[in-house]
Amino acid sequence: MRAEKLSVTKVFFIMCAILLLLSTSMPCIIYILTRNVLALYCGLIYGVLAAGCMTAFLVFVRRKLTMFSDALCRQLDDMMSSDQTPPQYTEGENLFYKIQHRLSRLYEVLRESKSSIAKERADLQELISDISHQVKTPIANLKMLDATLLEQTVPPEKQREFLLAIDSQLDKLEFLIQAMIKTSRLEAGVIALEPKPQAVYDTLAAALGGILLNAEQKKITVLVDCPETAIAAHDRKWTTEALFNILDNAVKYTPEGGKIRVAVASWEMYVKIDISDTGIGIPEQHQGTIFKRFYREDSVHDAPGIGIGLYLAREIITRQGGFIRIASEVGTGSTFSVFLPHS
């Protein structure tokens, strides 16, 4: 009989049979050799006791194996079909405990993986919902303008006005798509940030270059105080994107003739970049939610934008070991403080 076909029960009975045979045959052999009845009785008693001890040991081992296999099967069933807490085993230095302990660790890893997958699925559903909500308005506007141009006779002046409106809606869609591409690539890890020690001055200058024209059109004064010696560990391209998003928000929500002040200071562990404006300010109850994706306050819905800039800025900064802090007062302005770790 091949060993792999033998069950534990069969092995148990075979071992018991062998022990019984040995316990009876050995005293008989001794009696034949010695013709001593006392030796025969002593041999029989010793054989029975030895066989009994071995049988008890085999029964104990079989019971332990049965209990372990039952517990193993229950735990595997839980791992496959439920979120129950894995059973706790009494610690001990034996083979069963080692297997059970590693199985419990595997159970926890699988639960964490399942929880992570569920969270990613929920985030994906939320993202799809957000995108559909954001594209709904420009697409509806485009359909309305297109239907008007197709179904009605529109004067040339009005046609130009409609075409400019269509161009504006297309720009909004393009901006939304580009922002979503950046966000999704960053969240999915397709883009790996590579922070390295470099001057904050050049990064800040690149970010400021993107908002100076709009600031000039609104007659906003931009004041910058940044020492050229300030060094922080950051990815220049993506940190420029984050700082630009904060500066762009400052320009959008600062009235004409206002001021934007940028100040850089080196702390013990971080380089601090303060971006202050004299804009409309943010209510205290909303300061914890402005970094959510697509979040916009009701009071600024008429302003350009889709509410993804601050979300993207926070993702970029935190993924480099930094953080963003905000202080704001309605009617006075806001200060966004960006902390980048030292090299």
From TrEMBL:
Its EC number is 2.7.13.3. PROSITE patterns: HIS_KIN. Keywords: Kinase, Membrane, Phosphoprotein, Transferase, Transmembrane, Transmembrane helix, Two-component regulatory system. GO terms for molecular function: phosphorelay sensor kinase activity. Residues 130-343 form the Histidine kinase domain. One of its GO terms (cellular component) is membrane. Its main location: membrane. It is an enzyme of class 2 (transferase). CDD domains: HATPase, HisKA. It is found in: Membrane. The keyword Transferase applies. It catalyses: ATP + protein L-histidine = ADP + protein N-phospho-L-histidine. The chain crosses the membrane at residues 12-32, 38-61. This is histidine kinase. It comes from Candidatus Mediterraneibacter faecavium.
